[in-house]
Amino acid sequence: MLPSGSRMRRGDEFADAVRKGGRSGRPTLVAHFRMRQDVDEPPLVGFVVSRAVGGSVVRNRVKRRLRHLLRDRLDRLPRGSLLVVRANPPAASARSERLAAELDVALDRLLRRREPSTAHTDGRR
After folding, report:
1. Distance between CA atoms of 58 and 43, rounded to whole angstroms?
2. Which domain holds residue 46?
3. Is residue 61 part of a domain?
4. Where is the composition biased (Basic and acidic residues) (predicted)?
5. Which residues make beta-bridge pairs with 35?
6. Which of 19, 61, 84, 103 has minimal Cβ neighbours within 10 Å of its Cβ?
7. How many domains does the chain have?
8. CA distances (Å), 52 to each of 41, 77, 91, in order?
């Protein structure tokens, strides 16, 4: 699914993204995004799927679906970034199209926030 080098494995990376990063919430998922300074490594992606989503079979299915969706979107993430996707309970019954659409909206919001503002570049206030 995801390349091995792009999987988040360490707890401090999860904590860094969730506690210090930007957040974009949707009904089925919440995305946390953080840029690491002075790090030129591939983006790292992690998933959090709690028991509130369902039993182990349901949680693993949701994780597989999210990993599959993120694999196609990995090239949108800048090098050195951390992304944690936390599934909400509605993710268990959501269709893949809805998960994909909500993931795209969350990523668009987070990536747009990190871009420098082009407003007021002409000297006006």
Report:
1. 27
2. 4-110
3. yes
4. 9-19
5. 81
6. 19
7. 1
8. 33, 28, 10
User: Is residue 123 in some structural domain?
Assistant: no
User: Which contiguous run of DSSP H or E holds residue 47?
Assistant: strand 44-49
pTM attached to this predicted model: 0.86
* Phi and psi at residue 18, to the nearest 5°: -75, -45
Inter-residue contact 80 to 118 (CB < 8 Å):
no
For residue 40, the domain's CATH number is 3.30.230.10
**pLDDT tens digits for the chain (125 residues)?**
688 889 999 999 999 999 999 999 999 999 999 998 888 889 999 999 999 999 999 999 999 999 999 999 999 999 999 999 999 999 999 999 999 999 999 999 999 987 654 444 444 44
Q: SS3 letters for 86-101?
A: EECHHHHCCCHHHHHH
Whether the CB-CB separation of 29 and 106 falls below 8 Å is answered with: yes
- 44-49 and 29-35 strand pairing: unpaired
**Could you tell me if residue 93 is inside a domain?**
yes
117 part of a folded domain: no
